[in-house]
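> example.struct
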C-alpha cells in the first residue's frame, strides 16, 4: 500500500520527462500570448511594448524570429536577452505583477531551454514576420513609466503643497473621517506612488482628459470639498492638462509616429516659497486673470525670465500668489534654483498681464501676451520665503515700457 501511494505521488508531481518544445509552447507560451491579463512589461511601459509582441503563430516561427532579433542565446539559453527583459523589475515590485513575471519567466525559460536542444527548431530560417514592438522606438520611450513620471512631477507634483493638507495620508486624518479613505490619493514625498494611486482611483479620464476628476475638482467645475484651487486657463490648468492629455494619448495608443509626440518644453517651473502681492488694481479689473512674470535684470540691463505667478484679482483689488521659478532644462545657471527653490536677492522686473478682454477665459489654451500687458515695474532687495510678508508691488506704479 505505501509503495503504491509513493508511486502515485511520483506520477502526479514529476514533470513529463521529455515534453517537446512545441508542446511547452502550446501549454505555457500560447496562454500568455492570448491572456487578457496585463503582462509584467506594463509595470514600466504604459504602452508600445508587450510580451505578446514576441510570440508568433507557432514555436518554430517564434524561435526563429526571436533568434534573428538577437533575443535568444543558443549557447547559453539562460542568458537570452528576452529573459533579461522579463526579469526587469522596479525597486518596488507590484505583488500581482511579480507573480505574473515569475510565471512568464519560468514558461519562457523552459521553452527556450528545450528549443535550443531541438535540431529541427534550430534549422528553421528566420521568418518574414518579426517580433517586438510595432511602434517606433521614440514612441516606446515616450510611453515609459519613468518618462511619464517625470512629466507628472514637472506638471502636477510641482504644486503638491496646494493639495497635500487634505489629500496626503500623512496629514488628512480629519478629512478621511468625514469623507472616507478615497480622499487619500497622495503619498507624502512619493510622486510615483501618488501617480499610481491617481490611476488606480480612476481620477484620470483617458477618453476625455479635460473631464478628469483630478482637474474638475480643483477647478471646482464639479463641487469640491477643497473649493477652487486654480483658475481655468491659468498656468496650473495648462500644466495639469498637458500631463493629462499626454497620458491619455499614451495609454490609448494614439501616438504612432515620433512627429505626433508633444515637444519637451525647454523650461519648466519649480515652486519657490516666495510670495508676490500686487495691490491697488483698478476696480474694473476685479476678478480678472493676471500673470506676473518676474525677470532677473543684470548689470548690463539684460533681462531673463526667472519666475512667474498667476491667478485672479481678488475682492480687495489685490492679488497674491506663490511664484514659480522658471528653469531651463539644460542651463547650469539654473541648477541653484532647482535645489534651493528660491530666487536669490537681486534686481528684478515684474511684467504684469491682465486678461482684460477675457481672451483666456474664453479659450483656456490662449496665453496672455503683449496685448494684455498692463505694465512693468523694477524692484530689488531681500525677498524671504513665506506667505507673510510677501514682496509687495503697487499696480499704480506699473509703467509702460
Ligand atoms: C523595471 C522596468 C522595466 C520593465 C519591467 C520592462 N522594461 Fe523595457 N525598458 C525599461 C527601460 C528603463 C528601458 C530603456 C533603457 C534601457 O533599454 O535600458 C526599456 C527599454 C525597452 C525596449 C527598447 C526600447 C528602446 O528604448 O530602445 C524594449 C523593446 C523593451 N524595453 C521591452 C520590454 C518588454 C517586452 C518587457 C516585458 C517583458 C519590458 N520591457 C519590461 C524598463 C523596463
Ligand atoms: C482644504 C482641503 C482640500 C484641499 C487643499 C484640496 N482638496 Fe480636493 N477634496 C477635498 C475634500 C474634502 C474632498 C472630498 C469631497 C469631494 O469629493 O469634493 C476632495 C476631493 C477631491 C477629489 C476627488 C477624490 C475622489 O476620489 O473622490 C480630487 C480629485 C481632488 N479633491 C483634487 C484636489 C487637488 C488636485 C487639489 C490641489 C490642487 C485639492 N484637491 C486640494 C478637500 C481638499
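> example.seq
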Amino acid at each position: 500500500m505505501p509503495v503504491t501511494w509513493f508511486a502515485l505521488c511520483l506520477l502526479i508531481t514529476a514533470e513529463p520527462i521529455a515534453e517537446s518544445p512545441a508542446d511547452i509552447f502550446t501549454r505555457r507560451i500560447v496562454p500568455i500570448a492570448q491572456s487578457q491579463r496585463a503582462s509584467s512589461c506594463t509595470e514600466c511601459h504604459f504602452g508600445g511594448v508587450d510580451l505578446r509582441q514576441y510570440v508568433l503563430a507557432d514555436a518554430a516561427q517564434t524561435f526563429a524570429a526571436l533568434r534573428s532579433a538577437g533575443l535568444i542565446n543558443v549557447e547559453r539559453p539562460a542568458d537570452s536577452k528576452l529573459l533579461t527583459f522579463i526579469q526587469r523589475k522596479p525597486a518596488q515590485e507590484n505583488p500581482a505583477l511579480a507573480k505574473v513575471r515569475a510565471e512568464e519567466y519560468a514558461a519562457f525559460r523552459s521553452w527556450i531551454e528545450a528549443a535550443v536542444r531541438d535540431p529541427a527548431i534550430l534549422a528553421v530560417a528566420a521568418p518574414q514576420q518579426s517580433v517586438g514592438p510595432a511602434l517606433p522606438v521614440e514612441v516606446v520611450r515616450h510611453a515609459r513609466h519613468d518618462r511619464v513620471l517625470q512629466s507628472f512631477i514637472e506638471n502636477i507634483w510641482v504644486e503638491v503643497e496646494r493639495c497635500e493638507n487634505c489629500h496626503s495620508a500623512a496629514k488628512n486624518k480629519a478629512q478621511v473621517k468625514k469623507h472616507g479613505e478615497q480622499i487619500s490619493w497622495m503619498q507624502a514625498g512619493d510622486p510615483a506612488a501618488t501617480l499610481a494611486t491617481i490611476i488606480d482611483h480612476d481620477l484620470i479620464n483617458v477618453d476625455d482628459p479635460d473631464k478628469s476628476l483630478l482637474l474638475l475638482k480643483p477647478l471646482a467645475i464639479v463641487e469640491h470639498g477643497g473649493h477652487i484651487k486654480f483658475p481655468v486657463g491659468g498656468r496650473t490648468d495648462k500644466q495639469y492638462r498637458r500631463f493629462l492629455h499626454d497620458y491619455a494619448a499614451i495609454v490609448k495608443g494614439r501616438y504612432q509616429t515620433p512627429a505626433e509626440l508633444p515637444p519637451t518644453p525647454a523650461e519648466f517651473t519649480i515652486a519657490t516659497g516666495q510670495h508676490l502681492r500686487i495691490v491697488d488694481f483698478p476696480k474694473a479689473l476685479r476678478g480678472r486673470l493676471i500673470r506676473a512674470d518676474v525677470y532677473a535684470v543684470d548689470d548690463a540691463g539684460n533681462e531673463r525670465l526667472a519666475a512667474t505667478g498667476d491667478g485672479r484679482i481678488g475682492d480687495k483689488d489685490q492679488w497674491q500668489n506663490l511664484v514659480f521659478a522658471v528653469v531651463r532644462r539644460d542651463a547650469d545657471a539654473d541648477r541653484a534654483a532647482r535645489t534651493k527653490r528660491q530666487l536669490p536677492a537681486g534686481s528684478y522686473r515684474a511684467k504684469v498681464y491682465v486678461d482684460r478682454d477675457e481672451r483666456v477665459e474664453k479659450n483656456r489654451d490662449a496665453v496672455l501676451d503683449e496685448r494684455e500687458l498692463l505694465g512693468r515695474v523694477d524692484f530689488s532687495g531681500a525677498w524671504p520665503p513665506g506667505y507673510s510678508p510677501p514682496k509687495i508691488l503697487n499696480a499704480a506704479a506699473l509703467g509702460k515700457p
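> remarks
The mean pLDDT is 92.
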